[in-house]
Amino acid sequence: MEGPLQTFVHVCHENGQWMSRLPEKLWDIPLYNLALPGSHDTMTYCLDKSSAVSGNESKLVKFLNKCLPCIVHPIIMKWSITQVLTVTEQLEAGVRYLDFRIAHKANDPSMNLYFVHMVYTTVTVQDILREILRWLETHPQEVVIIACRNFDGLTKRLHNHLVACIKEIFQCKLCPRNVVPTLRTMWHLGHQVIVSYEEEVELGKHCELWPPIPYWWGNKTSTRALIRYLERMKRMGRPGKFFVAGINLTENLRYILVHPFSSLKKMTLQSLPCLKIWIKQQYPGPKKKCINIIAGDFIGNNDFVKDVIELNTKINPPLHCQSELEQITFNSQLLNL
């Protein structure tokens, strides 16, 4: 127990201010051409064990959970939790992309908003935004990208409330979408937060909100199938600005039935050695096969954050992406696993 804990503390200390320690040659490169570590379903570390199933889930799941809660609810929990570190711990560990699935509870008369992944969280969105602000105030040269997504149960009034909270809490730290987000520019202007928002009406009304960030979601139970999907997406070409390559595996009903004693954490940890090889072969940059944000589950494991940050050392003009020789080497490494 002592060894992993010491390693974790060391990683957090080293990566908490990694952006401020990047070499000056990278300060004028837009953030969407750097390698940034992200967490998938950031807030699932605080899912409420007593919560009702969210409104977006299927009628079958809701029915089974209602009829057999002692059996179904524990299964839901062990396949819904994707992170164990708090948001502050994730930021301190070096994560710079946060995946926020935001929801309003059905039949809740209040304006309180929560995070959701099958069930709701114990904490509110407003509390977490303030927690992020406190961390940013002690890390003035770090930049965080917040992706606001899903919006389960949000009305127009609740969207207005959410955007007002975002603007009130972060104020001048919000980077407008007309700014080219290089570190040098953001440091000069005092911007530390980029918020992408998956709702067109609000997006059109507020220059502080950025368009939705594409997320390459493989929806695969197999590591090799996920890597094949990511390589296929790279061949098609990266988007022009921010995008996420998700290295998160996804269970389905068949997988759960075949692996009754497993969990999303076990599934993820088994995949990490293979995914680590894939990550180390990537290049950040503007070219077709380059990557930007890489987001995963259980980000405190297996040096994931450190491996993504270190990809930025490959940015040394002329900027290039993976060569055919490196791809052959990568394929042979996978075959040996």
From TrEMBL:
InterPro entries, sorted: PI-PLC_domain, PLC-like_Pdiesterase_TIM-brl, PLCXD1/2/3
CDD domains recorded: PI-PLCXD1c
Pfam families per the UniProt record, alphabetical: PI-PLC_X (PF26146)
PROSITE patterns cross-referenced by the UniProt entry: PIPLC_X_DOMAIN
GO-annotated molecular function: phosphoric diester hydrolase activity
SUPFAM superfamilies linked: PLC-like phosphodiesterases (SSF51695)
Gene Ontology biological process terms in this record: lipid metabolic process
Gene3D superfamilies in the cross-refs: Phosphatidylinositol (PI) phosphodiesterase
PANTHER family assigned: PI-PLC X DOMAIN-CONTAINING PROTEIN 1, PTHR13593
Protein name in UniProt: Phosphatidylinositol specific phospholipase C X domain containing 1
